[in-house]
Specification:
six-stranded antiparallel β-sheet, alpha+beta, 6 strands, Aspartate Aminotransferase, domain 1
Length: about 120
Amino acid sequence: MTRDEFNAFCKSLPATTHVVQWGNSDVWKAGGKLFAVCGWNDERDAFTFKVSHMGYEILSDMVGMRPAPYLASRGLKWIQQYDEGGLSDTELKAHIQASYDMIAAALSKKKQAELGLTKKE
């Protein structure tokens, strides 16, 4: 996945915002909460996203994947794809979507409603 493809995918998710920070990283948020980052590797684009506990255990052992610098060192379950190997573009998008879903679900009901993320019955 290229940085442009990453940004286009994240932009396609509802109620997201984008900022460039942390040394020219593309940072994506839902409701003001981080769900994905592209940037933190000098040699190539690296993609960082939140995962479940099980996802963290499995993905951190894969080639090209590692616990996300800074975030994982603080006990948070974040993974970074930093090198070849790792996930296909389809799998990477699925994990970014899951990260977004976890973050959006953790927002208050009021915030979800403000952002149009609640399902109408």
